[in-house]
Specification:
- The structure is a single chain.
- It is built from 3 helices and 4 strands.
- The chain is of the alpha+beta class.
- It has a single domain, classed as 2-Layer Sandwich (Alpha-Beta Plaits), CATH 3.30.70.20.
- Strands 1-4 form a two-stranded antiparallel sheet. The protein has a two-stranded antiparallel ribbon with strand order 2-3.
- It is globular.
- The N and C termini lie far apart (27 Å).
């Protein structure tokens, strides 16, 4: 099992999770983070670090967001690793309250 970043991360992109990942499994896109399922060791450290609750164990991803499991795997092959925390976007508080952000995902 791996962990999956879901829709809540789009345009929020807090990177607190990156700082605690012992294997550098996170990948960074223009406005979203993903977890590389081949790197993730299922340690759970990233889950409580996410202020928008966007990270789930693969088996616990909400039904309406299960496609994010495949999306994480796909984008992880193309996006570079992120290994250190960065400042979140300036408008993060605005986007943290928005639902249905799939159309805003920038695949870069």
């Amino acid at each position: 099992m791996t962990y999956v970043v879901t829709e809540a991360c789009i345009k929020c992109k807090h990177t607190d999770c990156v700082d605690v990942c012992p294997v550098d499994a996170f990948r960074e896109g223009p406005n979203f983070l993903v977890i590389d399922p081949d790197e993730c060791i299922d340690c759970t450290l990233c889950v409580p670090e996410c202020p928008v609750e966007a990270i789930y164990a693969e088996d616990d991803v909400p039904k309406a967001q299960r496609d994010f499991t495949a999306l994480n795997a796909e984008l992880a092959k193309h996006w570079p690793p992120i290994v250190a925390k960065k400042s979140p976007p300036a408008d993060v508080e605005q986007w943290a309250q928005v639902k249905d952000k799939r159309a805003l995902l920038d695949r870069g």
